[in-house]
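[DERIVE STRUCTURE TOKENS]
===
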Amino acid sequence: MTKKQNKETERMQLTVDYAFKRVFGRNGNESILKDFLEAILDIEINSITIQNPEIPKNMKDGKIGLLDIRAEVNGDEITEVEMQVQNQYNINKRSPTYLTKLYSEQLKEGDTYIKVKKVAVINILNFNFYKRNSYHSVARMKFEESKENEQVDMGYIVEDKYATDDLEMHFIELPKFRQKNPDMSSKLDQWLCLICGEEGKIEMAKSKNEEIEKAKKELEKLAMNPEERELYELRLKAIRDEMNIRQSGYADGMAAGEAKGKAEGEKNKSIEIARNMIKEKASIDFIAKVTGLSKEEIEALKWKNISQFFYYICSICIEKYKNSNEFWNKKHKMYNHIL
């Protein structure tokens, strides 16, 4: 088999958002998305409509944009799914922004709030972000415990837990899932084995769920399609290029920080040497030659040392004579000297 043929039959990675969207977010694959969302949202889905099945026309330009999947579920909920390969260190800001944008955009002029549908944003992360022990974290607008002095006996046996259940965020951190060594007991575990490409467990997942088998076949069809393969490779290259740029910028920043820290350390060392030489009554010219500090910097250090010494002497005097009448009679004069 030639290198080109091998490339064409190589399995695509579902952690690349292009492949993920083509398998889960295209028209005709609603049953795959339905089963996957049921596993995450823990609800029964009776109807599902994919709202953005198209792939952006500028894909061939290698531009990085958002390749998300947006669907209406059961006619009363908007769900957005996004696959994120690289950590941009902003998911805690980015996800709430998308969530509230999707929520507020539903209202048109003259509409009533009753028409606003629930929104759930699902973030599948190929990196760890939150300091949590669960690979699947769910965030809602939950009430905090009230302070004891703010409690009123209204007779409620069961209190409301949420201010609203209209807003929901899910974070699935794939590295944590891989570390778990899943036993395939849950439907979500089965789907994530496929997404992570864990070959040894995909066959088991397929045997437990026919939608997973269907998704795997869709992925294999994509890999064999030359046009789809080209777009996939372009997307993969664009993602890697952006990651390299970010990593390069991070490395440059670290190097600059280390250089700055080293320079500051050397400067502090020179200042300490200069202070000791001032105490030994060395000349300013000699101190400048030894330390590399300017004469102006040494003069400033000299006067700072004198000020600190004078303040120290005054403090001793104040402590010694603070209870004497003589001190209180002359306090203004002494304060003026200190200042």
User: Anything to note?
Assistant: The two ends are 88 Å apart (CA to CA).
